[in-house]
Design goal:
This protein has about 475 residues and is α/β, with parallel strands linked by helices. The protein contains 17 helices and 20 strands. The chain has helices spanning about 55-70, 110-120, 120-130, 135-145, 160-170, 175-180, 190-200, 220-225, 240-245, 280, 305-315, 325-330, 355-360, 370-400, 415-425, 435-450, 455-465, and strands at about 5-10, 15-25, 25-35, 40-45, 50, 75-85, 90, 95, 155-160, 175, 210, 215, 235, 255-260, 265-270, 285-290, 295-300, 405-410, 430, 470. The chain is globular. The structure holds beta-L-fructofuranose. The site of beta-L-fructofuranose has 11 residues, from helix 9.
């Protein structure tokens, strides 16, 4: 096997980025080429302000990043693209019809009730195995149908597939991301019967392809415009960012849990088969498809969104917030009277987060955290509590003997969060890598290009060797038992 360079496009909630990795000879070196904002774009729609993807702006940054990557590299052979799940663009005759909606937009409520009036949520769960999240693609499409816009489209492409289409001219639906739409059946095919029941068009999403397959060569005009090597191809990676992140968790899945912690905390285990039973449904656990046909049995926990939205609010109020300092202060601050429910749907939309958290406490007759440091402490304690609770659920519902928990993504950089999570779990937390998503994206490309061995264990071993995790041991129970856990 030789060595070569691969680019990863990773569109995350606070930022998008293009990364460049050199892989081969048992090594993986990865660095950032460019980074750009990726916040929702609010646009007036005649009645209200709706949240959209700024997809043309992002595509311009992606093009710049790929061009810079080509100039910095001697041997760029592949490009992989990932983003958060569920969102899509509608097309007609190959043209994008409008700016894709951002899943945090409020339009989904009507879609949810329309779907649940037609099919009982328990039956829906038996078919698609997905946790209820109001923004699952199936609800978004239903909202789109009600708005009258769905009928205009002859095709839908999930966001990484849309970018891949613009780069190659080829359309496909990558399987890991397809599994978050709510429209994949237990047999792994599009559930046409469900689509018909809901009155949704069948065949809207193109053919499924597996992570690791080649989407196609980059279009000749783009090769010229960006100065890319003529042989470069786009690989369909595990294009759902969480699927990519879990590829890069350096774990033994039989005895480990994981928390992929960025904007969301994705908390669970990796298993061979779907776990679809009433207990899993009530605990709102999902079965998302990963690379190599593995299943991510996990639950969404609100994640660092609670913190980043709080920081954004304080900055709107004119305060300059230096995160490392606020985290130090939080460590010294009093823990809250009680953990709050991080997953209260009130916290889902953008806006004044500290006020909503304070309201959560006062509406229950509890004292709200006083001041920024106490608020940050309450957020981290409550997240750690939710993480621990969901790891326990994942272990017991799936029958996995979890002994250690890996924390990857931006949250793995937050030492207080890692320590509090270890305390509440009573188990070691292994932190890192921070850039798990981009690394997982690269690993699938590298396997496809035969730069590393084509199996998940070797890929994880390479991560463990390249980015040795930091270990947080649980402290004595005294550190946590003063707090009443939210149930
Ligand atoms: C994480 C993530 C989650 C998904 C949410 C919305 O970035 O992809 O896995 O539930 O975003 O798509």
């Amino acid at each position: 096997r030789g060595r070569a360079e691969l680019a990863a496009v990773d569109l995350g909630a606070t930022s998008g980025r293009v990364m460049l990795a050199r892989v081969g000879g048992g090594r993986l070196d990865i660095r950032e080429v460019n980074r750009f904002g990726n916040g929702p774009l609010p646009i007036w729609d005649g009645r209200r302000t709706a949240l959209h993807w700024d997809i043309p702006g992002l595509y311009a940054h992606i093009r710049d990043g790929l061009s810079a990557a080509a100039h910095q590299s001697t041997d760029l052979v592949g490009i992989g693209i990932d983003s958060w799940a569920v969102d899509y663009g509608l097309l007609r005759g190959g043209r994008l019809l409008g700016l894709p909606y951002h899943y945090r937009d409020e339009r989904n409520h009507a879609g949810v009730s329309a779907v649940h009036q037609t099919i009982d949520p328990a039956l829906l769960y038996a078919r698609n195995g997905l946790q209820f999240l109001p923004f699952n693609t199936v609800y978004q499409l239903m909202a789109e149908k009600q708005a009258g816009t769905l009928g205009l489209a002859d095709q839908a492409l999930l966001i990484p597939d849309l970018i891949g289409y613009w780069l190659t001219g080829r359309t496909a639906t990558e399987r890991t991301n397809a599994s978050t739409t709510g429209l994949l059946g237990a047999d792994g095919n599009w559930d046409n019967e469900l689509e018909q029941t809901l009155g949704l068009p069948t065949g809207l999403f193109p053919t499924l392809i597996e992570p690791g397959s080649t989407l196609g060569p980059v279009l000749p005009e783009i090769i010229t415009q960006l100065g890319l090597p003529s042989s470069v191809t786009v690989t369909a990676v595990a294009s759902h960012d969480t699927a990519s992140a879990v590829v890069a968790v350096p774990m033994q899945p039989e005895s480990a849990g994981y928390i992929s912690c960025g904007t969301w905390g994705l908390v669970g285990v990796e298993v061979a088969d779907r776990v679809v039973n009433p207990g899993a449904r009530v605990a709102n656990f999902t079965n998302e498809v990963g690379a190599d046909g593995r299943i991510r049995f996990l639950r969404n926990v609100m994640g660092l969104w609670l913190l980043s939205e709080s920081v954004r609010q304080w900055e709107r109020e004119g305060v300059t917030v230096e995160l490392p300092r606020v985290l130090d202060e939080a460590e010294q601050a009093h823990p809250p009277a009680e953990l709050f429910d991080t997953d209260d749907p009130e916290f889902l939309t953008p806006g004044d987060m500290p006020a909503r958290i304070a309201q959560w406490y006062t509406s229950r007759g509890l004292p709200a955290p006083a001041g920024r440091a106490a608020m940050v402490r309450a957020i981290l304690e409550s997240l750690a509590g939710a993480f621990a609770r969901r790891i326990r659920d994942a272990a017991s519902l799936s029958g996995t003997g979890v002994e250690v928990v890996h924390m990857v993504g931006g949250g793995s950089r937050n030492r207080l969060l890692c320590q509090l999570t270890a305390d509440r779990l009573g188990m070691p937390v292994l932190a890192g890598p921070v850039e798990a998503t981009a690394i997982g994206n690269i690993l699938i490309s590298a396997r496809a290009k035969e730069l590393i061995a084509d199996d998940p264990e070797s890929a994880r071993a390479l991560v463990a060797a390249t980015f040795p995790p930091e270990r947080f041991e649980p402290r004595a129970a005294a550190h946590t038992h003063h707090l009443k856990a939210f149930r």
